[in-house]
């Protein structure tokens, strides 16, 4: 890659000139600013103090020596402490001829022979998937695809939270106020169960309010509420294996899984393995009891089991309740152990919102105390919440944005916008429906993934479906435009596989495109290291924008110079391929026609 070639030449020039090794952390190349001539720039200010030279003199000396020893360098210029390097056309043309037809272009072998397990989605079976889950699923799926493209063996897993007090709340509400199956109610199973969860919360609030009116404090009222006591009793019955409770649990969870599968299919995400907390919490309890037996954990009066983390700057952590029931941490201990047993890996990445940062700090620390040397393999991919113009969502109050509803809204908005702009007039009905799905889901995925995962984001559906600006539809339309050019070339009798596209001098616009194309492997590697699909998304936008500027100013099919025409057609094909490959890493489909 160009960066490594330049870095090697810089170090060699530095050593030849000054008989010492430069600090490698400062040998970083970046794109030259548009107002200056050059392809890449390195800032030499960090080296001036040690060498006692002015920035201009230092940059000039190093630039002269690099041009002398590196054939790929044509010339250089110096602006204060910025050394701007002009790469020879021969380098870009060689890159183009070697990579433009390479189906593996962009992929790296950095992770070859290494396995990464990545967990995402992790839904509760007491509610349907919502907007927050959409960010989680899209982020997890995309990071998995990016890591695969970097050579890693990736195992995509889902941990379904299918047990616990929240599940019992939905079950109890269904017993009291439901008693109908999803097909009778005319709704998806996950939505029916979610409605029961909301109903439980409303009824519980009424009971708590009555107790407060009777003079109880709010906290005490919440503990005394009969509904909560019934839900806790149901949880104890479940963990004891009571037949009727288990039967109802299996039935209602079955409804939910069917609903989840439909949502995942529309979202375009999948998993290699699905874990269920009902199958892992017992292993977690075994680990806790063994830790107690070994004196690592301790038991409080009453029977609850704890881990003391105060010496590590945290607090005491409950790992098992006095009645023997487990908490979230218990089952996460068991899941981590089972996962490492089944898929020994370099990393176990958990895609979970940033409100759980403390939870994962505790998980790693408890596992270390329990003697799990692999605890440091756990990595929390912490991401920011998704907010709406109306504010935060609350599941118990039923104010979440349902994932199915949002996806349907995106597809319908794509239908309306695309039809109004006349971009689907030549398509058959089934082709048009496919296009509306591609645009709607592409807009959703791009809008969410172009934001750095660590940042809280404001999602506005109306802004995401726009054929101009930094949006999915803009990138998709660019791809469709290129595919149209290639079809017209074939229809005109032009041989698009013509190998005579080799030219000797590279025009400015073509050079800008090729230079940007050459950055794709670098961006892919960085996005894998940073677990950030945003780098891929914004690279796609820059590439699409650069192509459209080229398209507006340079003739392609009407170019009279046949070699240059063949070169430009080949360049168009390379851009389309790269957009398609990058889009696939985000889970985006690229339309052939728009």
Description:
This protein has 594 residues and is of the alpha/beta class. The chain is built from 22 helices and 14 strands. It has helices at residues 2-18, 45-51, 55-69, 89-99, 131-149, 165-178, 182-185, 189-213, 218-224, 226-239, 243-267, 277-293, 328-342, 357-369, 403-420, 429-449, 461-464, 472-491, 508-517, 520-530, 533-553, 562-585; strands at 29-31, 40-43, 73-79, 82-87, 115-119, 153-160, 273-276, 298-299, 305-308, 316-320, 347-353, 378-383, 386-387, 457-458. The strands form four sheets. The chain has a five-stranded parallel beta sheet with strand order 7-6-5-11-12, sandwiched between helices. Strands 1-2-4-3 form a four-stranded antiparallel beta sheet. A three-stranded antiparallel beta sheet has the order 8-9-10. β11, α14 and β12 form a beta-alpha-beta unit. It is globular. The protein starts with a helix and ends in a 9-residue tail after the last helix. 39% of the residues are buried. The model is unreliable at 391-398 (pLDDT under 50).
Choose one word for the global shape: globular
Low-confidence stretches: 391-398
> What would CATH call the architecture of the largest domain?
3-Layer(aba) Sandwich
First and last CA, distance? 35 Å
Question: How confident overall, as mean pLDDT?
Answer: 93
CATH fold-type name of the largest domain: Rossmann fold
> What would you report as the Rg, rounded to the nearest angstrom?
29 Å
| Record field, number of beta strands | 14
How would a crystallographer describe the biggest sheet?
5 strands, parallel
